[in-house]
Amino acid sequence: MKLFKLNFSNTIRTGILTTIAILSSNISFSQDFGADVVSSYVWRGTQFGSGAHIQPYMTLGSGNLEAGVWGSFPTTANGGGNELDAYLSYDFGPFALTVTNYTFPGEGGLYDSDGYGFFEGDYTEISGSTSIGGVDLLAGYFTDVEALYVELAFGAGPVDIAIGYGDDQGDAWYANGGSGIVNMSFSGSKEIQISDSFALPVFGSFILNPDAEAAFLVFGVSL
Q1: Residue 124 bridge partners (DSSP)
Q2: Is the pLDDT at 95 greater than 80, yes or no?
Q3: DSSP string for residues in 150-203
Q4: pTM exceeds cut of 0.70
Q5: Is 85 within a domain?
Q6: Confidence band (pLDDT; 50, 70, 90) for 3?
Q7: Is residue 78 part of a domain?
């Protein structure tokens, strides 16, 4: 069944600029930034690029409203998989709503000549998330390629488990034009004590994509 197809690029651009203007005049705001270093970039059961990636982020928020940028960049020149996203999110309490603009710059941060750029965005996703009885639920819909992703995540002792289902209405996105379980991840984290006053957060994930018959083992460090 064909769902709606919209372009929210201007909405995201206006929303982020408006959010920054509002937050700049409000004394109650928060800022955060940091980065993860991962052995490979695997997102929802699909690997992007090759080799290790650095994934920095910056956020600016006030109350339940947050705007931010997130990126993933390979550590080698031919690693591929550059990504730079902007998002706007609001937490309503029972659930959170997020609009994300995904872009994929080339080498040197340059975009191609067909009109796509950071503020235009290559792909737009509308997603909602909530928690029910210890289970985290996420549903995201890409308006450009008509692709739906639904994920359930929960803790089982020291292991965090996530199961994701992908459905491609138009272009091949998650399940090569079909539908199925595209992501099963089993994750854990710990802190490595470096000194009396500093511990290094590390994490790891074993990821299966049953639909594509693929498997990944990812190690990461949070900075």
Answers
A1: 101
A2: yes
A3: EEEEEEETTEEEEEEEEEESSS-SSSTTSEEEEEEEEEEEEEEEEETTEEEEEE
A4: yes
A5: yes
A6: very low
A7: yes
Name, in order, each residue with C-beta under 8 angstroms of 147's C-beta and a sequence gap of 6 or more. Answer: 141, 166, 167, 168, 169, 170, 171, 173, 174
2 within some domain:
no
Q: Provide CB contacts within 8 A for 170, sequence distance 6+.
A: 145, 146, 147
94 torsion bin: left (phi>0), alpha (psi -120 to 50), beta (else): alpha
Percentage of the chain modeled with pLDDT above 90: 69
| 15: containing domain | 9-222
Number of domains in the chain: 1
Measured distance CA(78)–CA(93) in Å, rounded: 43
**What is d(CA 77, CA 94) in angstroms, rounded to the nearest whole number?**
43
3 lies in a domain? no
Return the structure tokens found at 140. 């995201």
Q: Give per-residue pLDDT as tens, 130-178.
A: 999 999 999 999 988 899 999 999 999 999 999 999 998 777 889 988 9
Residue 74: the pLDDT is 94
